[in-house]
Design brief:
By secondary structure, this protein is mostly beta strands. The chain contains one helix and five strands; from the N terminus they run αβββββ.
Length: 97
Amino acid sequence: MADRTDRLIEALGSEVSLTGEAVDYKIGAALLLEGDRPVFLEGLDYWPAELRSRRMTVRGVLRRRESTSPADDGPIPAQRTQGGKWWIESPAWERAS
């Protein structure tokens, strides 16, 4: 997985094309890469039902956002995350062949 992370770091801020499984998380739609690394899609809360769990290719600008674990002040527990999140700015997707 370190090799994949190194490649993501090298591509940070660049236009990329990534292929993986379309998955949904509480915090939004993502492309699950090899090694269980999610890359979230800007502006997409959930994949359309017909694409969920399908192998997809997503193109866009690769970004990384450092995350902080929110305070748990409300009646609904917040989803806790650690470290940063990878995400695709202005994503476009298609089914992978």
